Amino acid sequence: MSNRESASLPAHARHLCLITLFALVTGTASASAQAVPPVNPYYARTNTFSIFSAYSGDSSHILLGSTENRKLLDFGVAYGHKLYLNHIVNWQYNGELLPVALESDPEFQLAYHQTYPSVRTYDMYILQATGHCVSGGSGTYTMGFGDVITSSGTFTTSCTRRWTMGEGISPVGFQWNFLPRNKLQPFFIGHGGYMYSTQPIPVPEAGSFNFTFDFGAGFELYRSMTRSVRAEYRIHHISNHGTADQNPGIDSGLFQITYSFGR
Questions:
Q1: Is CB count within 10 Å lower at the N or C end of the chain?
Q2: pLDDT digit string (tens) for 174-231?
């Protein structure tokens, strides 16, 4: 046997050394990769679930509606799904469901106190489509035909509000978050849908079924990679699109707070 042959390792020993060396190199590379944290990760969930509340204390002619002095109070849930993401924008689908949608109309109340021909009291409520209600009026009234008086008495005026319960859904909606690597992100949002109320709004001649759309902007603050809080302002519109005798429409400035979570 030659010196070269006596110094060489057996084949199985050489194979074992190669396998051990490969395992050490692979393990070191894996440990190094795990030790390095991701640089500036995206604050962007794939699926988002949200709960929110929204309020508007007044209405006016902003876009299409002409009805004034209406209030809105909404409580709802939402679902979002990431559609496209890069370092500039996070484009998401966003749909909302409103199990509680409250709308408030101003009412002008006339309280009649009849003294002739009998004593009785009755009230009359009139919804106002435009203008603001003025209360505190009083006076006397006389009703009749020619010289014949059929009734007389006094009256007072006051202002009240009528709240109407409804529900709505906005299945078409999108949200665009900008600078998704930052915890604080500005965004734009918009929806289209419909709303059903237990009685016609905003006037009796309008319908109980109305179409809705909104668009707005705000800021979303991520408290962690999966949880965030949004604050926003929206222009919100309600109208029946000519499906009822009257269609005055309601334009509102809506403030909304949203808590979101997901992965």
A1: N
A2: 999 999 999 999 999 999 999 999 999 998 889 999 999 999 999 999 999 999 999 9
Residue 257 CA to residue 251 CA, distance in Å, equals: 19
Tokens 């009412």 belong to 107
Q: Is 96 buried (19+), middle (13-18) or exposed (0-12) by CB count in 10 A?
A: buried
The DSSP bridge partners found for residue 186 are 219
Residue 186: partners with Cβ closer than 8 Å, 6 or more residues away: 177, 178, 179, 217, 218, 219
Rounded Cα distance between 257 and 218, Å, is: 10
What would the CATH number be for the domain defined by 47-104+163-262? Answer: 2.40.160.20
Token digits of residue 223: 């408290």
In tens, the pLDDT along 134-173 reads 677 788 888 888 778 888 888 888 888 889 999 999 999 9
Q: Rounded to the nearest 5°, which phi and psi values hold at 118?
A: -140, 165
Choose the weakest-confidence range: 43-57, 59-73, 147-161: 147-161
CA distance 262 to 177: 16
Where do the structural domains in the chain lie, given as residue ranges? 3-35, 47-104+163-262, 107-161
Contact 140, 152 (CB under 8 A): yes
Give 149's Cβ-side CA count (13 Å radius): 10
The pLDDT of residue 251 is 96
- As a whole number of angstroms, the distance between CA 229 and CA 250 comes to 28
* Single pTM value for the model: 0.75
Q: Hey, what long-range contacts does 133-138 have (CB within 8 A, 24 or more apart)?
A: 133/69, 133/106, 133/107, 133/108, 133/159, 134/159, 135/159
